[in-house]
Each structure stands twice: as C-alpha cells, then as structure tokens.
Design a protein that fits this description.
By secondary structure, the protein is α/β, with parallel strands linked by helices. The chain is built from 15 helices and twelve strands. Among the domains are: 134 residues, Rossmann fold, CATH 3.40.50.10860; 154 residues, NAD(P)-binding Rossmann-like Domain (Rossmann fold, 3-Layer(aba) Sandwich), CATH 3.40.50.720.
Length: 426
C-alpha cells in the first residue's frame, strides 16, 4: 500500500517529466551546477488542479479536471500553453511546464515556465460546450494567472479562439480589458502578426542554420514531417518555400508519400476541405511508423512526445532531426542517434518560435504598440539562431549532443539568476 506522500508526488514520476529531469541532471553535471540550485530545479513550485463543471448541450452537467503547473519563476512570469486532450494528467503537465522553464531560459526570454490543460477530447465538444469549458476553467485558475503572473497560450487542442475566450473571461472578472493575460489571441484583440506560423517558422530557421553548420543547404534537401497540425503544416510550407523537397507528411489518420516532393500549398488547401491528408492526389499512403523510418536529409517530428525511442532509434535513416513537438525523441534514443551520426536539434531550441513570438505579443500588448510581420520574423530569427549557436558552441566544446548542450545553456542561465536572487527566507 502506497503512503500518502507517495501518492502526492505520483505526478513527478511521469515519463515526460523523468526524461526532462534526466536532461537537467546531466546538464548540471556538465557545467558543475551549484547543488542547491539543482535541488530547487527538480520540483515544480506550484501544481494546481481544478474541477471544471460544464453545462452540456443536452443540459446535463459534466465535470472535467483542469490543471495549471507553475514550475519556476526565477526569470519572470510563468509562461506556457493550455492543452485540451483526453490524455492530459498532472504528470504530463508537470513535464511540459519543466520543459517550458528551460526553453524560455535558453531563448533568453524574461519568463519562467508553466503549462496547463484539461482532460477532455475537444473533438467531441460543440463550440458552445468548448466555450463554456474554457470560460469556467479560466475562472477557476483566475487567481493564479495575469499579465504579470502567468500568461497562458494555445497548445494541442486549443487555438486563437480559445485564447479569445480566456482573455474575455479574465477581463470581465477584472472589470476592464486585459489583452496581456494570454498570447496566441486573434490579431483583432491584441494578438501578434506572425504568431500562428511562428513555431513552424522557427523550426525552419533552425534547420537552415543546422544545414549551414554542416556545410549544406536546406534548398534541395529532402524533408519528412510527422504531424500536419499547426506546427507541422507551417514547417512544411516554409521549408517548401525555401526550396526543400517535402517527400512525406502525416496526421492522426496516417501519412502520404511522394518521392518527387509534395505540393505543400495545394495540400494545405486540400485539408481545408478534407481535414486529413489521406487520399491527396499524386501521393501514396504510408503509416506514421514507417514515415519516421524514411531516408531523408531532415525529419521533423511535430506530433506528440516519445515517438522515437529505443524501439525504433536504430532504424532511423534521417541525417538530421528537428524536434517540432515537445519531447518527441527520448533521452535514450538521442544517445543512440548521436552515436549513429544523426544530428538532433532538441525541442528546447527547435520549437521555441512559438514562445518567442508569444513574448513579442505580450510586449506589444503592454506597450499598446504593434510591429509588422517582417519586424517580428526578423526578431524571431535573431533570437532563435542565437540560442542554436550558443548550444552548438557548447556541444562542440564539451563534445556532447545538442540536447545536453541546449539544456546546459538553459541551466547555466537559471543557475546564475537563482544565485543572484538568493533563497527566501534564509
């Protein structure tokens, strides 16, 4: 029989969190991090679980469980997305909040790390039910969020409309408009230009830099993208625009393949009507599992976590992996890939574009002064390339893979800040 304390900390044994924790410990050892700082970085500051009762369309009431984890605020307000998915639990949210902490640190942003979610299948909700769910969840976590406290954003299963409802609910309860409480909003109510495609564009900027470091070019390179949601579809589009040959993409129903390259703009138009990539003209079907094993210059896993592990790492034929999703490659798999000469650009760098432009949105909301898309993309490229270069330098100097190097850079910044701030109370 487990003791109460064991049950209370069960969320700290989630594979995603343990994977992140292993990276932190290895990074701390690499940079000889202060032991007391490391001890503090191993646990979230605050874990919130709330009941979210919702009046459904048939007038019944269903009670969903919502979460918000605030992992670390050393560098500034908590920042991280809200996920609506039937697999969401406290353990997953803790792991994602930890990753956000280190991603924000590596990107040089004035943010801590947070994450939230509701255990629900959003595809089974009507628009009204989803709005009711979002507004009640926002009200329940309301005391813990705010423009200077914790700034949510979209994630899996949520979008700009979800953020609009969150912003409105928080503003109604505050008594005045507060656009800075969330990012990823529609442009009309304080959102930023360039936010929708930012994560995919950031991943492509990183891929371009990685190819450059290897003496090659993204132009003419073969690219495979697993996950054709917001991140994957934009990564495919921006890679295609830069002359890459996108030979395969996939979504939850499976994938499509064309060795001569898919026409990505046509595919994006196709899914507006058909919703899924299957049966796209001039393509052959391929499973998600087989798609990961295709020979290519760059593989972008842009779906869920742990899709590449010890079971398939040895079979990977891609020369480079750009992690568009959070945690798609496990630590153990990274070790195998590194040994086999596969260059892995980890999520803390590769998918940082979304939070970087979220930061720009937050700054613009605070200033009530907005930039054009060209300015935003220019600033995004500058920040994400700097993070890549710092990590690449660390990887070269220490002779380690990019995941460990990126985490080392992130932990180093947090360590300096935590030692400067000290521990309250003494």
């Amino acid at each position: 029989m487990s003791m109460p304390s064991e049950k209370a900390e069960a969320h700290l044994s989630h594979p995603l969190f343990l994977n992140a924790l292993q990276s932190v410990e290895q990074a701390a050892e690499l940079i000889k991090c202060d032991e007391n700082v490391l001890e503090r970085l191993k646990k979230p500051k605050r874990c919130i679980a709330v009941s979210v009762p919702v009046r459904m369309d048939d007038y019944s009431v269903k009670v969903f469980t919502g979460y918000r984890v605030q992992y670390n605020s050393t560098l500034g307000p908590y920042k991280g997305g809200i996920r609506y998915h039937q697999g969401v639990d406290m353990g997953e949210v803790v792991g994602l909040a930890a990753l956000m902490t280190f991603k924000n640190s590596l990107m040089g942003l004035p943010y801590g790390g947070g994450k939230g979610g509701i255990c629900v299948d959003p595809t089974k909700l009507s628009r009204t039910e989803k709005q009711n769910l979002t507004r009640r969840y926002t009200s329940e976590i309301g005391p813990f969020i705010g423009p200077a406290k914790d700034i949510p954003a979209p994630d899996v299963g949520t979008d700009a409309q979800t953020m609009a409802w969150m912003m409105d609910t928080y503003s109604q309860e505050s008594g005045y408009a507060q656009p800075g409480v969330v990012t990823g909003k529609p442009v009309e109510i304080g959102g930023s230009l360039g936010r929708v495609g930012a994560t995919g564009l950031g991943a492509v900027y990183v891929a371009e830099r990685a190819f450059e470091r290897k003496g090659k070019s993204l132009k003419g390179a073969t690219v495979v993208i697993q996950g054709f949601g917001n991140v994957g579809s934009h990564a495919a589009l921006y890679a295609h625009e830069r002359g890459a040959k996108v030979i395969a993409v996939s979504d939850v129903k499976g994938g499509i393949f064309n060795g001569d390259g898919l026409n990505i703009p046509e595919l994006m138009d196709y899914i507006k009507t058909n919703k899924f990539v299957e049966n796209f003209p001039k393509s052959k079907p391929i499973s998600n599992e087989d798609l990961l094993l295709l020979g290519c210059d760059a593989l972008f896993p842009c779906a869920l976590e742990n899709v590449i592990d010890t079971h398939n790492a040895e079979k990977i034929k891609a020369k480079m992996i750009i992690e568009g999703a959070n945690g798609p490659v496990t630590n153990a798999a990274t070790t195998i890939l590194h040994k086999n000469g596969v260059f892995v650009v980890p999520d803390v760098i590769a998918n940082g574009g979304g939070v970087v432009v979220s930061y720009f949105e937050w700054v613009q909301d605070i200033m009530s002064f907005f930039w054009d898309e060209e300015e935003i993309n220019k600033r995004l490229k500058s920040i994400i390339i700097k993070a890549f270069d710092q990590s690449y330098t660390m990887a070269t100097e220490k002779n380690v893979d990019m995941r460990l190097a990126g985490m080392a850079v992130a932990v180093q910044r947090l360590e300096k800040a935590m030692l400067l701030r000290g521990l309250y109370p003494r």
